[in-house]
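User: Protein folding is very new to me. Would you mind checking the protein record under this note? It all follows right here:
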Amino acid sequence: MKIKLTFIFLQLILAPSIFAQSKTGGENLYVANRAPLRTNPYIELPLGAIKPEGWLKEMLIRQKNGATGNLDTLYSAVMNNRNGWLGGDGDQWERGPYWIDGLLPLAYILNDKALIAKVKPWVEWSIKSQTADGYFGPSKDYPNEAGVQRDNSRDWWPKMVMLKVLKQYYSATGDKRVIKLMTNYFKYQLKELPSKPLDHWTFWAKYRGGDNLMVVYWLYNITGDKFLLDLGDLLYKQTFDYTDAFLYTDLLSTVGSIHCVNLAQGIKTPAIYYQRHAEKKYLNSLDKGYDDLRKYDGMAHGLFGGDEALHGNNPTQGSELCSAVEMMFSLENTLEITGEVPYADRLEKIAFNALPAQTSDDYLNHQYFQQANQVMATRQLRNFDQNHGGTDVTYGLLTGYPCCTSNMHQGWPKFTQNLWYATADRGIAALVYSPSRVRAKVANGTEVNINEETNYPFSETIKFSMEMGKGKSAQFPFHLRIPGWCKKATIKINGLDFREVDGNQITKIERVWKSGDVVELALPMHIFKNTWYENTMSIERGPITYALKIKEDTQKVKNTLDPKHYGGYYYEVKPGSPWNYGLFDMSEKKLNEDFKVEKLGKVSNFPWNLANAPLQITTKAKRIPTWQLYNGMTGPVPFSNINDIAPGEEEEVTLVPYGTTKLRISEFPVVGRK
């Protein structure tokens, strides 16, 4: 990808504490890469420095009051005190760490004492579990028990999740016990991995070793221990070679070639290793990998067909919820390392479309798989790689497979944590947009507070207000991302026109800032289209994909068949209005004439349902009589060049933001050209 950058990266050598001394004796503001690791353009801020506002804060509060904050009681069979990560004889594997990987950042971002109290026993047990040889975590296997995973306790993979948890815990608290534990554990890994490689117990760690590598490099930046670089090379060597697979194989064009969540997690591995070996091939592999994923498996909601194995781009194939949150985390890491705009664009596409559509408003229930064209969320077997009693597209606590019950919690908290970054040139960067506020150190250590006021992604304007304390000022760069979909952005400072900027770049405003300064960013959104499977068409505006508004009839179903496997209830959603419409293809100019954007004037802290959607688009469409239900799904999508596919009259239809829907058509057959 070729991105125009309007800033120059400084080469910094960083030392081991949060306020570290550089070679020249000056203070570096945050821990970033130290030599020989490559200097990254952006640096993650401490956990808790970024606070959500507006709809994003409401989403996190709903998580607190929903499954994220209460999974220990809702899913007590796994998350109670029998869990192996609390020293018990229950579940020994990934589900406990998965939950805490989302609960911990939520707790510290909200500064919620009750949630922090739930997190602490998991952290304390993990730290105190370390043995003299450096190993930590559960170490004993137990006989099989329905509903829990009690074997493979020494598998490398679950420790990778807990390492991410402890990294975040250190970021929030500075607890130095984390550094000691990781140092000793990584020495243990360096000793043991040659004889017990990543795939010794299960294959999962081999595909997810990038998470382990990420934490190794993070620790190196704090301690400077050289053995960590050797461990990094060993981990990369034992991890599935995504670089080679993306560049030279047909991995992404082959159905069933890789598990969808392994791909979502592993796709960041070339970027992470690039920090140590800054060879262009690693970035080239990402470019080709994302391009091929879009070409062969991509869907209008920003994800890809994977249910659970990679399964192409038919809009009735599923996309797993774990894939959504893990792909978001991979994009967040890759954005920090590369500073390239398309990673932020992809991140917003998933966050504002796929993610909210796959969970219930109260954050108690979720779908295991979602479909880009989804017209029945009912219990029955579908054309997925894996079926779990037919519950995969229903909404429930335990429907599908329980990995997503445990792992869905990290999406929004980590999204919040990656809205803002410190910069290598001692400034501040807003690279992903949502209502928020940030506290950070800039320039020579001056603390700045910035309030970001916006209803983005539904609005086109973002207002940033600076506060530095009475009479204080500082010179530092303020980096702003101009998305790839934006043709030309405008920036005002204190009410005066400052700059027009073309899309697909990061612009830098370097000046002396003072309290009360206001930056206004306008990102004009236009309607555009994309082409997908069988020449179908999506309608998009800004970061949002628009989908057919279908009347949703929701019913709670008591599960008397297999409640121990899939929960005592689930929700089915059935259509109460027609869905088999096709749209007209047309030029971009005509798109913006025939597709009418309507701002509904609704003001809600929770815009992610049909009742509260703040925007809609109306246009003309035609019904396709031969396009009917098949096995609880849309039947084979008609290829868009079929003559007389829609012989009836034109009708007006309403399109709404994808993330507000539970039923939808988002990839439309084309019924003609205007």
About this structure: The two ends are 33 Å apart (CA to CA). Residues 1-26 have pLDDT under 50 and may be disordered. The first strand starts at residue 4 and ends at 5.
